[in-house]
Amino acid sequence: MTTQEAQATTPTRAWAMLALGVLAQSSGTVFVSAPAFLIPLLHVQRGLPLAQAGLLAAAPSVGMVLTLVAWGALADRFGERWVIAAGLALTGGFAIAAALSPGYVWLAVFLVLGGASAASTNAASGRVVVGWFPRHRRGLAMGIRQMSQPLGVAVAAIAIPPLASGSGIAAALVLPIVLNLALAVLCAAFIVNPPRPAATPATQAALGENPYRAGSFLWRVHGVSILLVLPQFTLSTFGLVWLISEYHWNEAAAGLVIAASQFVGALGRIVIGSLSDRFDSRMGLLRIVGIAGAVAMGLLAALALTPWGAAAAAVFVVATTISVADNGLAFTSVAEAAGNRWSGRALGVQNTGQFVAAAVVGPGVGALIALVGYPAAFALVALAPLVSVPVVPPRDVTHASAA
Fold first, then answer.
1. What is d(CA 142, CA 18) in angstroms, rounded to the nearest whole number?
2. How far is CA 270 from the centre of its chain?
3. Contact at 8 Å (CB) between 215 and 280?
4. CA proximity to 61, closest of 324, 348, 358
5. How many angstroms separate the CA atoms of 32 and 21, rounded?
6. Distance between CA 221 and CA 354 in Å, rounded?
7. CA 202 → CA 39, 195, 199, 401, distances in Å?
8. pLDDT range class, residue 11, cuts 50, 70, 90
9. Using an 8 Å Cβ cutoff, are 10 and 136 in contact?
């Protein structure tokens, strides 16, 4: 199929829905990632132990773990529009409560609740992509949709540290409050649920079947994604405080490095998604990402032993880019293998596994860094993508209803 033919079979509305999905998940990600960029304030300025600061950073991920499958089931049953809009509205509300919280305990509670609400965009916006785009465009579309996570982290990296340093936690949370409430209104007004194709005799019987009983493909992709998310969240959670505490960079310069790594990572997701469409092998590319991730984290660990801050920061950008490259491949593959009736729940399971791992990264890697230091911690985290390589399924699987 030529490029012109491919574009002709993709509805114009699909691109508008994709744009709304990216903005919606980006706004949720700003809230979820904001606590990680409060660590310099909490740890360096206020003396909160790194493990405890990491626990606060992980609080929204804990909330997401609790509700991802439920939001996916709601999207399967009722469609994407109101699931996304309601989730964003609740996220904005809990962000207000977090900003007004009197202490760390209540702050953690409202961060958990806000994360539980923000989870709506993860499962539902993925369904929008799979529902509106044909298979030969889904890799590119999901790569664009997956930009939302690094873009949200980049916005938080640029805005949250100076706001927190200058005016405290409440001021830093104003940005996610405004973004989530504004996007809730836009999504309620303009998102259109994708059309569901009529079942043929060949697909009717299979539509309601549990795809997890059809083989190990989905379970293996979930497992690979859990392993590959460990370096991603290690870098996004501790990269800023690493540059500040170990190389004595100021918050603005360190924040720009984190933001640059996220922007480059966002572009990398588009490239890898487009390649998966061109070569029609998402699993083959996923295997390459695992190998590259292990190499990049190992090199970062070696450079962390040196005083070469600029070189370490450059490799940090490369490692971050690789660490986020797998997400679009995995999400597209999960949605395609699960089919129209199960994609919301399957994406919920996919996200749940990843955010369980993310919730462990905050306190776990924080304690590991305190025990053995950044270089050894980075080297140990490099084992995760290495272990993922043999777990990647040998070939892609597509459900009949998603073909």
1. 9
2. 14
3. no
4. 358
5. 16
6. 11
7. 54, 19, 8, 9
8. confident
9. no
- Kindly state the tokens that stand for 319: 């490692």
Q: CB of 289 within 8 A of CB of 322?
A: yes
Among residues 133, 163, 158, the alpha carbon closest in space to that of 145 is found at 133
| Alpha carbon separation from 80 to 128, 129, 210, 352, 373 (Å, rounded) | 7, 11, 21, 18, 44
Average confidence (pLDDT) over 348-359: 82
Separation of alpha carbons 399 and 197, rounded Å: 13
Residue 2: strand, helix, or coil: coil
Q: Is 320 left (phi over 0), alpha (psi -120 to 50) or beta?
A: alpha
In this predicted structure, the answer to whether residue 139 has a pLDDT above a threshold of 90 is no
**pLDDT score, position 49:** 79
Residue type, 27: S
| DSSP, residue by residue, 248-305 | ---HHHHHHHHHHHHHHHHHHHHHHHHHHHHHT-HHHHHHHHHHHHHHHHHHHHHHTT
Does the predicted model carry a pTM greater than 0.85? no
- Cα 249 to Cα 49, 225, 257, 305, distances in angstroms: 20, 32, 10, 16
155-180: pLDDT as tens digits: 888 888 888 877 788 889 999 999 99
Q: What is the DSSP letter of 256?
A: H
Q: What is the DSSP string of 154-168?
A: HHHHHHHHHHHHHH-
Average pLDDT, the chain: 85
Domains and CATH numbers, the chain: 9-193+211-402 (1.20.1250.20)
At 361, list the tokens: 């990264």
Q: How far is residue 180's CA from residue 144's CA, in Å, rounded to a whole number?
A: 20
Please tell me the predicted confidence (pLDDT) of residue 399: 67
- Of the listed ranges 121-125, 138-142, 188-192, 224-228, the one predicted with least confidence: 121-125
What would you measure as the largest C-alpha separation in the chain, in angstroms? 66
Would you give the DSSP letter of residue 209? S
Alpha helices in 191-250 (DSSP H): 201-207, 217-247
The SS3 call for residue 197 is: coil
